[in-house]
Design goal:
The complex is a heterodimer of chains A (about 120) and B (about 325).
Chain A: E1 13-14, E2 29-34, E3 37-42, H1 47-53, E4 60-61, E5 68-69, E6 82-85, E7 88-92, E8 103-108
Parallel strand pairs in A: 2-8, 4-8
Antiparallel strand pairs in A: 2-3, 4-5, 6-7, 6-8
Chain B: E1 6-10, H1 14-25, E2 29-34, E3 50-51, E4 58-59, H2 61-75, E5 78-81, E6 84-88, E7 94-98, E8 101-105, E9 109-112, E10 116-118, E11 131-133, H3 134-143, E12 146-147, E13 151-155, H4 159-170, E14 174-179, E15 186-189, E16 196-199, E17 202-205, E18 208-211, E19 215-217, H5 220-224, E20 229-232, E21 237-240, E22 253-255, H6 265-282, H7 288-297, H8 300-310
Parallel strand pairs in B: 1-2, 1-9, 2-5, 9-22, 11-18, 13-14, 13-18
Antiparallel strand pairs in B: 3-4, 6-7, 7-8, 10-19, 15-16, 16-17, 20-21
The chains are: A mainly beta (about 120), B alpha/beta (about 325).
């Protein structure tokens, strides 16, 4: 059973009742941002799950021709779901959990690194 | 011995967890590494009850996963979720990658319970957003309670495809088409992702295409360690060649569960238990009679898998030559 007022053009949404599965442990609902737009997610769920539930299917574009990609494998192996998180590209949306206030962006091609340089790169 | 022999188990699904409990129970020092943050393997994204083969009826997957984790922990195994086993190198040194750190270990024996990966099915448009592997759809529906769309097409006609169809219906989705045909007959179009799917002259409006053409043993670590692969269609395709003790000849590595050939949850548990005991026996912690008992208690599927393996020859082409 999906809440009808929360579905998108292609019918994505969240499952609120299930005949076999016990309800999810309640996790806080937090807002994060995708390309500047506020998206709701449950703390701890993968960014990919929250984006797909909100109807966002494109996570990145390919370097050579710009063709779009969204998730595919959901287990951290295929690289279709790479997004930019807080300025850092190449983050697997399917393996990275939602936290409140995260800034997630579409990764165009290989992306550019705008985050903090890791300690081991200095000196 | 001043300290107990060490066994590293790669993979925390039903096979790995069962191996961990069995090996720890007979005195091995066991560490289990699971790359996902939650152990349980396929149980974590399974909706339908599991027949564990013990004659007690079907068990809910989340209850079974908890039970297997608790059994491993109370036997004394150390579980490390969120840790990836990245490779096995000369002299048996193993590289581990965890959050923010990497390190190496050199255990006395290694059990590969790495499970399986979903087979691909390339066709025009298959890279479009909205095309997912079978396992990915289960993870979204069952683990995270997310419907990635309402109308699903399932490519595939085997047990995985049938299972997925039920999961989609349970989650509130609709199965618009399911079946199998040669890849060139498929095409999909859409602006921001999948909108239509054609198979030959037929067209369907769909939101999600699930690729459920089967799964294949995850043999990368086994092959990297020098195990030879054979091709067994009955067990999903390429599998590491292992003997009756679940050991790859000439290597101190053991395999169990889907990593040793695609099978049921029940046989993964039974094979995991057998392999845990076999690895422990190879280190002097238990005897052959215990392995015979575990093999007999393992059921018909376990025996049949051994028969298939016994008839396997290494294939001419190997991934690492």
């Amino acid at each position: 059973m999906v809440e009808d007022d929360q579905t998108t053009a292609h019918g994505a949404g969240r499952i609120t009742e299930h005949a076999l599965l016990a309800p999810l442990q309640t996790a806080a609902i937090e807002s994060f941002f995708f390309d500047g737009v506020e998206v709701e997610g449950r703390v701890g769920e993968p960014i990919a799950a929250a984006l797909l539930a909100a109807g966002q299917r494109i996570f990145r574009t390919m370097p050579e021709y710009g063709d779009p990609r969204g998730g595919y494998c959901m287990v951290g192996r295929c690289s279709d779901c790479l997004v930019v998180v807080n300025g850092v590209p190449g983050v697997r949306a399917c393996m990275s959990p939602v936290t409140g206030g995260l800034h997630v962006q579409t990764q165009y091609g290989l992306g550019e690194f705008h985050g903090d340089e890791p300690d081991w790169l200095q000196g | 011995m001043s300290h107990p022999p060490t066994i590293l188990i790669v993979g925390g699904g039903p096979a790995g967890l069962s191996a961990a409990a069995a090996a720890a129970e007979v005195g091995a020092s066991v560490m289990l590494c699971e790359e996902q943050p939650t152990p349980g393997g396929q149980l974590i994204y399974r909706a339908q009850p599991v027949d564990t083969g013990s004659g007690g009826g079907a068990e809910r997957p989340e209850i079974l996963a908890k039970r297997l984790v608790e059994a491993a922990l109370s036997a004394g195994a150390v579980l490390k979720p969120g840790v990836l086993v990245a490779g096995r190198y000369g002299d048996g040194e193993i590289l581990l990658v965890g959050p923010g750190r990497t390190w190496t270990v050199t255990p006395d024996a290694v059990i590969l319970a790495t499970g399986s990966t979903d087979l691909p099915f390339p066709f025009p448009g298959a890279t479009s957003p909205g095309v997912f592997s079978c396992r990915a759809v289960k993870i979204l529906l069952n683990q995270w309670r997310v419907l990635p769309g309402r109308r699903f097409a399932i490519v595939g006609a085997g047990a995985d495809a049938e299972d997925l169809a039920v999961d989609i219906l349970l989650g509130g989705g609709e199965v618009v088409w399911s079946g199998i045909a040669p890849p060139p007959l498929f095409q999909t179009w859409g602006r921001d992702g999948v909108e239509t799917l054609s198979i030959g002259p037929s067209h369907f409006e769909v939101d999600v295409i699930a690729i459920a053409v089967g799964r294949q043993a995850d043999f990368a670590l086994a092959a990297m360690s020098g195990a030879k692969l054979g091709f067994a269609p009955e067990l999903g395709g390429w599998i590491p060649i292992a003997d009756d003790r679940m050991q790859c000849p000439e290597q101190a590595i053991f395999v169990a569960g889907d990593a040793a050939g695609i099978g049921s949850v029940a046989v993964a548990m039974a094979e995991g238990r057998l392999t845990g005991l076999a690895a422990a026996a190879s280190l002097g912690l238990t005897g052959a009679h215990v392995l015979d008992e575990a093999r007999e208690a393992g059921g018909a599927e376990l025996v049949w898998r051994g028969d298939v393996r016994r008839g396997l020859e290494p294939s001419h082409v190997q991934p690492f030559t």
